[in-house]
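REQUEST FORM: STRUCTURE PREDICTION
Request ID: SP-0412
Submitted by: Lab K.M.
Chain count: 1
Length (residues): 460
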Amino acid sequence: MVGRVGPGSLALTEAHRFPNRPVRLPEGLRWDVLALYAGVLDGLRAAGGVDSVGIDSWAVDYGLLDADGALLGNPVHYRDARTEGVAEKVWATMPAAELYAATGIQYAPFNTLYQLTAARSTAQLSLAKRLLLIPDLLTYWLTGEQGTELTNASTTQLVDPRTRGWSREVADRLDVDLDLFAPLRRPGDPAGMLRPEVLEETGLTGPVPVTAVCSHDTASAVAAVPAGNERFAYICTGTWSLAGLELDAPVLTEESRAANFTNELGLDGTVRHLRNIMGLWLLQECLRAWGEPDLDGLLREAAEVPGLRSVVDAGDAAFLAPGRMPERIAAACRASGQPVPHSPAEITRCVLDSLALAHRRAVAEAQRLADHPVDVVHIVGGGARNALLCRLTADACGLPVVAGPAEAAALGNVLVQARAHGLVGDRAGMRRLVARTQPLTRYEPRGDAAAWRSAEARLA
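STATUS: Completed
RESULT:
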């Protein structure tokens, strides 16, 4: 994505799009990170002249480098099965409550900490001299310089959200070598210059700086939420739904841990107190199983299906792995004694009702846990284009929903670069610029609040 920023203007242009296809090898599920890097180079070539480059991606996954800086195999995919049962082994040394009090990170089976524990006896980890999270790995290949960007580092479950540095307590107790990690960077810090070989391959004219952004895509997306004040909740929608609040300090209570809320770091020292929800992954997998039908037509049909006939827990780990998603959703409805959806439209309505219900629960619990009331919910990311999901979320939450921008992560990335280069002001100014320049749609709550309470009770 190419961003152009000026006084009162902010525009994005898609320069190049390329697939991200994980590969299942005999040893497990892996990312094809070399293909991703090739896509980055192709994108830079298509972009033409740029003043700065910034990279954001998903969180928790990493590449291992040897003493010469060479990659030791393709990075493991967070959906790989190697972390099954690992959390319990970690908790035997450091109980879950103590781990949460130290890091504020919710339990997820694929957290970097659990991945490292699962990899402890592997040849790759024994040979590794450096661990770079995915955006830092790509940045290293572009610049030759190594760093660990803080917003993404906070998802490893190895950072203290109060000090915003590594948690020596956790690392020492769980035998994690923090020397594997490159020095921490913060959004806006310089991350090097494009190497001469990269300039030659992409046709760019140097020097071109690479700027550290909020390299966790959710942190970039939250930075671009077009909120007018602090009384807002956000839902970053895509493969995952990340629903929560932007706070000045973490919420490290036992109640927050029990509710499975996380405290990830954001721009300017903020904390993203949020819950991970399975998100549109459920629908994406259904579409794949159905042979990729026309989504707009399917959503129109789903809107005609009676609402809340059947709902599933959108955060259930049973839906984490790929494959046979329509059958798994139907089985969950059958097991809970609800009507079983059969047609694609019925299953789609079940998925969207379930996501809206999960959004409702997350937004309500976040306000209660943080004692931070909100007046509006901002939906950003790809789900902002899904009018049915946005309308259902407004109904479920009983709050207005402002949908957009859909490319929030890219906008947040660009705005942090622009700020580092003196083109925009503070975080509030960045958000005003997004609100003035990007298309937004507002949905007012309607319908029967009792029906949503009843559906919630079914899941409880």
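NOTES: The mean pLDDT is 97.
Reviewed by: T.R.
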